[in-house]
Amino acid sequence: MSDTPRVPAADVPADAVLVDVREQDEWDAGHAPDAVHIPMGELPDRLGELPEGDVHVVCRSGGRSARATAWLQQNGVDAVDVAGGMGAWLEAGRPLVSENGQDARVL
């Protein structure tokens, strides 16, 4: 997947469409405020939910998002992998919110 387009978490535009492909418990613990949650296994069935334009794909560390980005590109979606995933997102000082009422964290 070396030809999969990547962007550092610090360089993701503030208005980017961010699709988080992690599982529900990971999402609940902490995610980017305006991200769209579509677990990787649900992408084929939920492809129609993706907004138009460039999609930035994120997971915990970058493995699932790289695979999802490659799959999306093969299916006609302009997708970019967020290098380093949510760990890199947090290290870059990007915002994080939780769904479970606890302090947001990356699982």
UniProtKB/TrEMBL annotation:
Top-rank lineage group of the source organism: Bacteria
CDD domains: RHOD (cd00158)
Any GO molecular function: transferase activity
Residues covered by the Rhodanese domain: 12-98
Keywords from the named record: Transferase
Pfam families documented for this protein: Rhodanese
Keyword Cytoplasm (UniProt): no
Protein name stated in the entry: Rhodanese-related sulfurtransferase
UniProt source species: Pseudokineococcus lusitanus
